[in-house]
Design a protein that fits this description.
The protein is of the alpha/beta class and 289 residues long. The protein has eight helices and eight strands, in the order E-H-E-H-E-H-E-H-E-E-H-H-E-H-E-H. It has one domain (6-288): 3-Layer(aba) Sandwich (Arginase, Chain A), CATH 3.40.800.10. Helix 2 (81-97) runs parallel beside helix 3 (111-122). It is globular, with a radius of gyration of 17 Å.
Length: 289
């Protein structure tokens, strides 16, 4: 049987040996607390990728030629959240040791706990750019520290965590917010002055974590915990382009896609976002010169 590749790219651009980029699907939603189904997110993401044009107009590039190796899905959604985090840590570390640019697609946001652990071991002077509708700073939720509502708590004790687009949180999380590092959506939606300030808060090496519910649900409705308001497509790209120009993005994850059989636009948005991030990572310098 022919090996499946991201976006049906030719196999010569999808072998581990020749790929600069690794894509790890994590189909896990055991700790989901409202709508279940984000374990189907990676599969929907890959299905949508087969319909994407591989030429990026903005950067005048075809970043897939850098090589994108697709890892087999690494967990079953029935295992404990603790075991899931350990598996994500191990697989992320495996490919970081191979000097690959590691990316992940979820699944619930708690997958980030494992990947951040692995990136933190490899990189010094690391910060987290967390784009989300929710703060995700609870130390424990529903009896576990590995719930999606806890995805940034462990990281917040070790690294600067710059949070963008937050518009929902529990009052208990306020004590874990890092001073000056949170950009609530109601404070940023009317202008773009926050972008430069947020980037200045980041360290040299940045791990990027994007929860799809950071977007306005009018453009990304298929997610587990949608919130009114949120970022638009082009404002998000404007900010992310600035981040990639100013900082070294060492890896990223995109989480909380909960596919809807009657609506596939969110699946495709996630694919376009993923490909755009790769284009910004590898092609911006060439594009600007």
């Amino acid at each position: 049987m022919k090996k499946k590749t991201f976006a049906k790219i030719p196999l010569k651009y999808a072998t581990l040996e020749k790929s600069q980029i690794v894509l790890i699907p994590v189909p896990y939603d055991y700790t989901g607390t409202w709508k279940k189904g984000s374990k189907k997110g990676p599969k929907a993401f890959l299905a949508a990728s087969e319909h994407m044009e591989l030429y990026d107009i903005e950067t005048n590039s075809e970043v897939y030629k850098r090589g994108i190796f697709l890892v087999q899905p690494i967990v079953k959604s029935s295992i404990s959240s603790r075991k899931m985090v350990k598996k994500v840590y191990n697989i992320t570390k495996k490919y970081l040791l191979k000097e690959k640019f590691v990316t992940l697609i979820g699944g619930v946001h708690s997958i980030s706990i494992g990947s951040i652990r692995a990136f933190g071991e490899k990189y010094t002077n690391m910060s987290i750019l967390h784009m989300d509708a929710h703060a995700d700073l609870r130390p424990i939720y529903n009896g576990t520290p590995y719930n999606h509502a806890c995805s940034m708590h462990e990281a917040s004790k070790k690294y600067p965590v710059i949070q963008i687009g937050i518009r929902s949180m529990d009052i208990s999380e306020k004590s874990y917010i890092q001073n000056g590092n949170i950009f609530y959506f109601h404070e940023i939606y009317q202008n773009d002055l926050w972008m430069k300030k947020a980037i200045q808060r980041l360290s040299e090496n940045v791990f990027l974590s994007i929860d799809i519910d950071v977007f306005d649900p009018s453009i990304a409705p298929s997610t587990g915990t949608p919130e009114p308001g949120g970022l638009s497509w082009y404002k998000t790209l404007k900010f992310l382009k600035m981040v990639f120009q100013k900082k070294k993005i060492i890896g990223f994850d995109i989480v909380e896609l909960l596919p809807n059989e009657r609506e596939s636009s969110t699946d495709f948005l996630v694919v376009k976002l993923y490909y755009k991030l790769l284009s910004y990572k590898y092609e911006l310098i060439t594009y600007q010169s």
